[in-house]
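Could you help me review a protein record that somebody else here produced? My question to you is simply how this chain folds and whether the C-alpha cells agree. Thanks in advance; the entry in question is below:
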Amino acid sequence: MQQLKVCELFAGVGGFRLGLENSGHYTVVWSNQWEPSTKAQHASLVYEAKFGPKNHSNINIEEVPTSEVPDHDILVGGFPCQDYSVATTLKNSKGLIGKKGVLWWSIHRILSEKKVKPKYLFLENVDRLLKSPSNQRGRDFAVMLRSLNDLGYAVEWRVINAADYGMPQRRRRVFFLGYHKSTALYKKFKVSTPKEWLLEHGVISSAFPTQSTAQNMDSFFIEEDLVSLSNAFNPDKGLSPFLNSGVCIDGTVSTLKTNPSYDEDCTVLSDVLENGSASEDLFISDADLPKWEYLKGSKKEVRKTKAGFEYNYSEGSMVFPDALNQPSRTIITGEGGKSPSRFKHVIPTRRGLRRLSPLELERLNMFPDNHTKLEGISDTKRAFFMGNALVVGVVKKIGAVLFQKIKEVEK
C-alpha cells in the first residue's frame, strides 16, 4: 500500500504533518494556515520555511473554494474551539450554516462538497469540546458527530493526556478519527461491538492501550435534525453525556470512561532541558522574584472591580519552581516574555531560577529542535506557537496504527 495523501487544515507550524510524515506512511498534498487576528502570518512563514511553499495556502479557509482543495485520503487538523451552534438561512431552510467565522463549518463544507470524499478524518481539539457550551453541555460535540454521520462517517474519540503514555508534557486533548462508509475499516468498525472497539480493536485503543472503569457503557441516539439538535440538546444544564472515550455510528453514541494502561519509561521535564546553553535573559532577576512568588503563591484577599465593587478573591498555590522529575505542566500560549506570571514555567538551575527556552518548549511538544527558529520570529512568538501546538508523538503513534489497520483490513 502506498502512502496516504493528507490535507492539513489549521496547520499552525505543522505538528500534524511532522507526526504523520515521521511515521513514514503519509504525504501532505495540501495545507492551509491562516491567522485571522494578525497582519503578519508568522505560523505560515515557519510552516513554509520548514516544508516549502508548494501546495501551501495562506488564505482564510472560509474563502478557499473546495475546488482548490485537491483530492486526498485523510483530512487532518486541530481546529479552533468555538461555539458550534447551528443556524438556518432564511432563504433556504435546508441550507444549514454555522455562524460565520466558526471554522468547523469549513471542514463540513469541504467534506460536503468533495465529490471524492476523504476516506479518513483525524481531528484534534481541547478536551472541553466534549462539555461545551456550559448552558447545554455536550451540544457542540453532538452537532459535530451528527453532521459527520450524515456525511457518511463513523467516528471514534478519546481524550488523551500525552504524559499518561510517557511523553514529556501533561497535555490533554480530544482526538477523533472518522471512517467513511466506503472503507473496509468502517465495515470492520460496524461489526465490532462498541466496547470491543474502544478497549481492543479500535485504532486509538491499539495506539494507546486503555482499561475501562467499573462504570457501564452509556448509549443514546443523536437526533437527525441539526437545528433542533442545536436548540434542544441537554437543555437542563446537566453534565455532558460524552465520556472520555466513545464511538458514534449511524447516529448512535456509545461512550465509556476509560483509564490509560501504560507501564514503560516516562520522559520528564529535566530530560528536555538545555544544559548550560540557555540564554541569559531567561533568568529571573532578584528584583522580579517577589512578583513571581506572589503570583505563584496562594492568596486570600479583597479585590476591587473597576466600578468599585469589593469582593473576596482566593486561589491556591502553584508548585514553584516546577518539578523537574515529572512531565511538565501544560504549555500555554503566554509562556514567552519576561513579565512575571502565575502560569509560565520556572525551573531551578545551578545559576538560579529561569523560564523555559523556545527550544525546550519545542521538545515538550516533541518537535525537532529549533523547528520554529526563523529570522523575524521572536521568542515570545515561538512560545505562542508551542502553546497552540499538539504533542507530535501522539499524532505519530495514532497515524502509524491507522496505516497498519488499513493495510490489514484491505488485504
Observations:
- Residues 392-410 form the longest helix (19 residues).
- The radius of gyration is 22 Å.
- The chain has two domains: 4-264+391-410, 269-388.
- The domain at 4-264+391-410 is CATH 3.40.50.150 (Rossmann fold).
